[in-house]
Specification:
- The complex is a heterodimer of chains A (427) and B (241).
- By secondary structure, chain A is α+β, with helices and mostly antiparallel strands.
- Helix content of chain A is 55%, strand content 15%.
- In chain A, the strands form two sheets. A nine-stranded mixed beta sheet of chain A has the order 6-7-5-8-4-3-10-1-11, sandwiched between helices. A two-stranded antiparallel ribbon of chain A has the order 2-9.
- The longest helix of chain A is centred in the last third of the chain and has 44 residues, at 277-320.
- The two termini of chain A are 43 Å apart.
- In chain B, the strands form two sheets. Chain B has a six-stranded mixed beta sheet.
- The chains are: A alpha+beta (427), B alpha/beta (241).
- Chains A and B meet through α1, α10 and α15 of A and α2, β6 and α3 of B.
């Protein structure tokens, strides 16, 4: 048994070595065919990575909001959810008393009110170049309930970031910066931060000076780009003392039934809407699904074109070697041996293309990510292309399977040649 | 007297070309013994290649009986013919038919792969030595002369230890001196190894260097000679009957 396996392995290696040498006879043609397969695999891997990465990024971004349900002012819930994920303008506000009403709900495990506003950073940044954003997302938060909702939030450590903390009780001019906001503004703990805020109903902005009392660790979410201040201070500066933007809520038991019950209880309030984040997730995923389907169609076409290229290359190679195949048969090669040899050549081309395509996709994933983000605002701060070993494994396996099927016809043609005719054709 | 390795009676090979039937070979009797060199002469279209294809099991006869190494071959399909060829017949072609990306050694060892036999480097060296190419073992075919390439082809034919060596125009692409050296090598192999050698040639000088010469014309044997003064096998066999 072991001898048989060793023998099979030995024979296979010899066939594989011969197949590789045959392919090297026409390096340009083989190279172009491999490149065709590699291109198709690159598209497929990038697409797979994007599908995986995008839904993962949505999951992560929404999970990192910390709550399962949002209550917000009536309007487009997805716009509001997207704004929570990536920031934006056109905010709608709801009465602050909603918080007092909703927090009495017995099914709520925790609730946090959030006030979101947009401030202008006039002259505040040392990197105020033309391409840079001139706005800061200001989040007014209630620290105790916010911390309960996002227990993973911590302060950045290291030189310049010592003694990072939340705001002192009653402080009116203290801010905590998200990781990226601090990096972008080149601010450390103890530095000053300037923001120009236009209060609601007023024509002119007022410049405010804040002291940075803490810089948060990176979370991979919109929190990284946010400037935090106490909710009552934010409301006052934005001229909306009795309003807030959303209520983030975590339920004791979260399922579709409980969610529906909760929704029904609070929809009675005329000015609010209840949005489940699972619903938001599904909608955001489905928004991109159409584009993904189109890209998948392109990938399928690329794969078909590559497969036709492979079959064409191998068929050409078979026709060129008609006489040689006849001679191999004269030398004792059975039909199966010729079939195996030609089949192996096809599989090797596809395997090489699969590997090259996967490497290209991994190396180019940064470019793909930038390209995707430049043409579509996905509302996500994390990576949207996630090429996992499983994606690569499936791609390489897929390429090999393609080779298996693509090689069938040329291998059959070669193995069916009658030696006497094959030899005379080449003469 | 040595064993008969190929025996054919009433061998015919007809081809249908539309409504016409081409009689490429029309009733040929041939017997070849181990250690004997038989050359087939004749003008183009006389049936040389057809005869050699049939005797070497590359093609099946339309009619007649054919025994190769004791096995009846007539009526066999291609898949069955290959089983008869394997390890019994070695081939040498006019165009050498070496694989350009394989070294001399790899070309010589190629049939072993198809015969599912292990490579024995000592045996390869021994055969390369016998054909005078041991110093070219790692060369590629393009680095060899025509005569050297034909020697590689002969070594490749010998590696599987065949009983019969079939050479179709082995000197066709060689100059006279090199062609003569190939014929001399055949003679040595036949004498030392008891190899039956069947060859076709256009060159009567090389043809008449064989033990027996069969001349074909229009698919039939025109004459059979023993140029070195020995009785023809046909005469010897039939005289006994």
């Amino acid at each position: 048994m072991n001898n048989d396996i060793r023998r099979d392995h030995y024979v296979f290696r010899r066939y594989a070595a011969l197949a590789i040498k045959n392919l090297r006879r026409r390096p340009v043609r083989t190279g172009l065919t491999v490149a065709g397969v590699a291109l198709a695999v690159t598209v497929a891997v990038s697409l797979g990575g994007f599908m995986l990465g995008y839904s993962g990024a949505i999951d992560k971004s929404i999970d990192m909001l910390g709550f399962q349900v949002m209550i917000m002012a009536k309007g487009c819930p997805y716009e509001a959810a997207t704004m929570m994920l990536k920031g934006g303008t056109g905010l709608l506000y709801l009465p602050a008393e909603t918080y007092e009403k909703v927090k009495t709900d017995p099914e709520i495990e925790s609730i946090t009110p959030i006030f979101v506003g947009v401030a202008e950073k006039q002259g505040s940044s040392i990197r105020d170049d033309g391409g840079a954003s001139n706005f800061s997302i200001i989040s007014g938060i209630d620290v105790p309930s916010y911390k309960v909702m996002k227990p993973w939030i911590g302060f950045k450590k290291g030189p310049g970031y010592e003694n990072g903390r939340w705001f002192s009780p009653g402080a009116r001019n203290e801010v905590v910066l998200g990781f990226e906001a601090a990096e972008y503004e080149q601010r450390k703990v103890g530095d000053m931060f300037y923001a120009s805020i236009t209060p609601a109903g007023k024509p002119d902005a007022t410049m405010h000076q804040f002291k940075v009392v803490g810089v948060l660790d990176r979370t991979g979410t919109q929190d990284d780009g946010t400037v935090f201040m106490p909710i009552e201070v934010a409301r006052e500066y934005f001229g909306r003392p009795d309003e807030l933007t959303i209520l983030g809520i975590k339920l004791k038991q979260f399922n579709a039934f409980k969610m529906r019950e909760f929704e029904n209880r609070w929809l009675k309030l005329p000015e609010v809407q209840v949005v489940g984040l699972q619903q938001v997730k599904n909608t955001l995923v489905s928004l991109v699904a159409t584009a993904q389907t189109m890209i998948a169609a392109v990938a399928v076409i690329a794969v078909i074109v590559a497969l036709i290229g492979v079959i064409n290359t191998i068929l050409m190679s078979v026709y060129e070697r008609t006489s040689e195949i006849g001679i191999m048969k004269a030398l004792g090669a059975r039909r199966g041996a010729i079939f195996q040899l030609i089949w192996l050549e096809t599989v090797i081309i596809c395997l090489a293309g699969g590997i090259a395509g996967s490497v290209t996709a991994v190396v180019g994933s940064g470019l793909v990510e930038r390209a995707i983000k430049s043409v579509a605002d996905l509302g996500l701060s994390g990576s949207v292309v996630n090429i996992t070993p499983a994606v690569i494994g499936y791609a390489v396996l897929g390429a090999v399977v393609l080779g298996f099927f693509g090689g069938l016809y040329p291998a059959w043609r070669a193995s069916s040649m009658r030696p006497v005719e094959a030899i005379s054709k080449g003469a | 007297m040595r064993d008969i390795v190929i025996e054919a009676h009433g061998l015919k090979r007809y081809y249908d070309r539309g409504s016409e039937t081409v009689k490429a070979l029309d009733g040929v009797d041939v017997s070849i013994r181990a250690g004997e060199i038989v050359s087939i002469l004749g003008p183009s279209g006389s049936g040389k290649t057809t005869l050699i294809n049939l005797l070497s099991c590359l093609d099946a006869p339309t009619e007649g009986t054919l025994f190769v190494a004791g096995k009846s071959v007539a009526g066999l399909a291609e898949d069955e013919l290959v089983e008869v060829r394997r390890g019994v017949l070695g081939f040498v072609f006019q165009q050498f038919a070496l694989l350009p990306t394989l070294t001399v050694t790899e070309n010589v060892e190629l049939p072993l792969m198809f015969l599912d036999r292990r490579i024995d480097p000592r045996r390869t060296r021994e055969i390369l030595d016998r054909v005078g190419l041991s110093d070219r073992a790692s060369h590629l075919p393009r680095e060899l002369s025509g005569g050297q390439m034909q020697r590689v082809a002969i070594a490749r034919a010998l590696i599987a230890d065949p009983k019969i060596l079939v050479a179709d125009e082995p000197t066709g692409n060689l100059d006279t001196a090199t062609g003569q050296s190939i014929i001399d090598l055949f003679k040595r192999l036949a004498a030392e190894q008891g190899l039956a050698i069947l060859l076709t040639t256009h060159n009567p000088v090389f043809g008449y260097a064989a033990d027996r010469v069969i001349t074909l014309h229009d698919g039939k044997i025109l004459k059979e000679e023993t140029p070195q003064g020995r009785p023809a096998l046909r005469q010897a066999t039939y005289s006994g009957n």
